[in-house]
Amino acid sequence: MEDALLRIREVSKHFGGVYAVNGVSLDITHGGVCGLVGPNGSGKTTLFNTILGLHRPDQGEIYFHGECINNLAPHQIYELGLVNAFQLPRLFYDLSVLDNMLVAARGHQGDRLFNSLFLRRRWQEQEKGLIEEALDILELVELDKWVSSPAGELSGGQRKLLEVARGLMAKPTLLLLDEPAAGINPVLGKKIFQKLADFSHNGITFFVVEHRLEILFEFASWVYVMDKGRIAIAGQPQNIIGDPTFYTIYLGEE
Amino acid sequence: MDPLLYVFDLIVFIGIFGIVSLSLNLEFGFAGLANFGKVAFFLIGAYTYALLSQIGLPFYLCLIAGGLISAIFGLLVSLPALRLRADYLAIAVLAFGEILRLIVKSEDWLAGGDWGITVSSAISLAGASHRVDALVNIALVYFCLFICFTVAQLLANSPYGRAMRAIREDEIAAETLGKSRAKFKAQALMLGSAMAGVAGGLYAQYLHCVLPGMFMPMITFTVWIMVLLGGPANNWGALLGAALVEIFDRGTNIVKDYFVLPIDPSNLQYILFGALIIFVLLYRPHGLLKESSIKTKALRLAYNGRRSIKNKRS
Amino acid sequence: MVNWAQVIFNSGVTGSLYLIGAVGLTLTYGLSKFPNFAHAEFMTLGAYIGYFVAEQLGLGLPLALLVAFLIAGLVGVLCYRGIFQPLAKRGASIIHLMVASIALGFILRHSIGAAWTWKPLYFTATWSAFDAGPLRITGLWLWLIFAALVLSLAMHFLLMNTKIGKAIRASSSNPELALASGINVDRVIWITWFIGAGLAAVAGIFRGADTQIWPMTGWDIILPIFAVAILGGIGNFYGAIAAAFIIGLAENIGVVGLIALGLSTTYRTGIAFLILIITLIVRPQGLAMLFRRA
Fold first, then answer.
1. What is the dihedral of CA B265, C214, C65, C10, to 10 degrees?
2. Among A93, B141, B173, B178, fewest CB within 10 Å belongs to which?
């Protein structure tokens, strides 16, 4: 699999002697939705944070587009096109919903100090287009009525939606989603996955952690199952469902 | 004392501290940096001005140099500071300010040590009265204030300012959305220090002297009161805060001259300052003026035209 | 010729003072998660109360220490209850808490200034200096070292062998866990503020007796005391002991160095600031790793 978009090789991350991620290897190919499931504490979020550059892996390598990103800062990883939506939304609560979206916008000329002072015309034009894009995405997640309210005034479910919308706004090639449908009503949850599938036709690949297996398995083309910091099994959803190991992992946790 | 001159003097002070207040607002209000060493950069600007004007440089070069050197120090301080938590940064910069004050105090050859040195006015008109001198100072100070305010407003209402606020709100999230917190914090400290440096230069030439006693940590906290009272992340608030604190300061000084109080008014003033800050933090943590929202041309169009956009679609 | 024995002894004296001053700061910092700048004014307050009891009432140093400890401790608890706890409950950020502590410092400092004026005061008790071998020693310094020793032993006993001490350690390292395991974290915190402010007062008396008393007495040494708390690792008592003596040594050896280099000895205070800045940059967790138990 030479053309893997994201390639993880033997990555480990431990905290004070406890391995949260223990020798994980996996590949994500271009296009579609790839799932990551596993019981609580199996290391999914730690793996995501390690990919993002929030933790440095203790061992192993992470390649994105064939480039090793182990030692890159999170903002450099964003530049390469790898973006994340957090499990617990990390919004900019005093900023408006639209401003939250615009922070994520890729390649905004006005993000530079010099341009913000002296080349205002240049980015003002660009910003109009970005706002249009942002409004489109907000409409998709049904937040278009809240455009000018501070993000702090949103409900829990709406915050979650904005977190996902912000990830889409960043025009990633690979978007990591940590439980996008958690805390949202099931109908909307399913709708979001449908939208994600639409986006994946536009060239965004999704790597999704989700506990609502029934939704995930409907949309994912490949699923990794994580247990105790390792990848236990991997395969297409229908094969995973048929695998007895899968049930031991989930039910064994009880 | 000439009452008009007294008012002019107050106006000059509001202008100078308005600049410092704007600079702290940029660092704390927008970027969320706890600069507890503001006075250090004020000091650098003042001493740079004093030393350069002694070798005969024209006043505008002295002012610019003060801003530049202060900015360089701001950048230097920011390098380690970027890795520091808010509280560590606060303590480190506070200590930095105290070290600087120790240096200018101890090194007599540099700028007269404890006794300081005299500084000539930026602009001295031959045979001008005190009032005219004060007016000239007002013009100079408010010209600088106008530039700083414009810069601060342009930043506040730009994607750059938006990114800065995002870093203040959640630097991890901002970082994963492509905003290098190191870069933004360094630039905020640099710009803030440059403004404080210019203000220091203005202060030195207005008071005709620099001496270590002018740069006590007290200055830093007076500026913090201005920003917190006026309203962090609101440039008008920073100016309002500066004006209120300076007027309050004069008010208590006048009271001292005309009334006999059971308590020394200068002590009372600081007790009231302290109580005021605690009151503001407890009951009005956003200050008098709310955080200003980001206003760019495109955003204004979007907010005003939102209905039409929606109608078009539906 | 440098009298090294004297330098070492002086370091012990300086270190003792910083230790007594820093214990409260580091423990409240560790528990309440913000640096209390008004700790300086707890020291100043202690110095004035000590002066009042020992000089104006003429009741002697031991009673002065005790009264100052109790009153300052009470003030510390009141400040915590009246200002910092309500602020924290309202979700104030660490920056707001720091600013509030500075504001509280203004109030205390200038209230003291209003009560006693800003004219420096001096303890009149003369501390007879005597020579012991190569050392020049005053009675006050012996008292100071004795106080630091008693404090160290008492704190060690408190932290290791009493319920409240164990609760302080548990709450400092993991407040949620402490809360979950049934520790009354609130009580732990106010007791810590009481002890911390009380000890600050003791440090203030010694500092005042050794130099002078004025409303800035505490602020004059607050940055070295911060240096001790941070070098020792925030919330770490044993680290603070080591750090206090390291900084004491650095200051006193530094003075020798300054004289040798022909620099002004006013830089003495700068040495601690420099250590403070370097620690923050290089190793902000301080020496904590060496003293993991507390």
1. 160
2. A93
pLDDT tens per residue across all 254 residues of chain A: 457 888 888 888 888 777 888 888 888 888 788 889 888 888 888 888 899 888 888 888 899 988 888 888 889 999 888 998 888 889 998 888 989 999 988 888 888 888 888 888 888 888 888 888 888 888 888 888 888 888 888 888 888 889 888 998 988 889 998 888 877 788 888 888 888 887 777 788 889 898 888 888 888 888 898 888 888 888 888 888 888 888 888 766 44
Beta strands A18-28 and A6-15, pairing class: antiparallel
Asked if pLDDT for residue C12 goes beyond 90, the answer is no
Regions in chain B scoring below 50 on pLDDT: 307-314
What sign has the CA pseudo-torsion A12, A14, A17, A22? negative
* A contact chains, 3+ CB pairs < 8 A: B
H or E element, residue A183: none
Q: Are A234 and A203 in contact (CB under 8 A)?
A: no
- Report if residue B302 sits inside a domain: no
CA–CA separation, B208 and A226 (whole Å): 71
Which of A79, A80, A94 best tests the B interface by mutation, with the highest count of B CBs <10 A? Answer: A94
For residue C137, give the 3-state DSSP assignment: strand
The fold adopted by the segment(s) A6-93+168-252 is Rossmann fold (3.40.50)
The residues pairing with C137 across neighbouring beta strands, listed in sequence order, are: C130
Contacting C residues, span 114-153, partner chain B, CB-CB under 8 Å: 114, 117
Q: Quote the ipTM score.
A: 0.87
A127–B296 C-beta distance less than 8 A: yes
Chain B residues with beta carbon closer than 8 angstroms to that of A103: 162-163, 166, 174, 177, 179
**Number of domains observed in the structure of chain B:** 1
Residue C128 belongs to domain with CATH number: 1.10.3470
Q: Is residue B88 part of a domain?
A: yes
Contact C281 B80 (CB under 8 A): yes
Measured distance between the N- and C-terminal CA atoms of chain A, rounded to whole angstroms: 36
Domain ranges, residue C139: 4-291
B30 within a domain of the structure (yes/no): yes
Expressed as residue numbers, the domain containing B30 is: 3-215
Q: Which two tokens stand for residue C188?
A: 């732990």
Search chain B and give the residue with CA nearest A102. Answer: B159
Question: Best of C29, C216, C280 to disrupt the B interface by mutation (most B CBs within 10 Å)?
Answer: C280
Q: C277 by DSSP, 3-state: which? A: helix
β-sheet bridge partners, residue A15: A18
Write down the residue that tokens 């008790």 correspond to: C125
Q: Cβ C109–B270 below 8 Å, yes or no?
A: yes
Q: How many domains does chain C contain in total?
A: 1
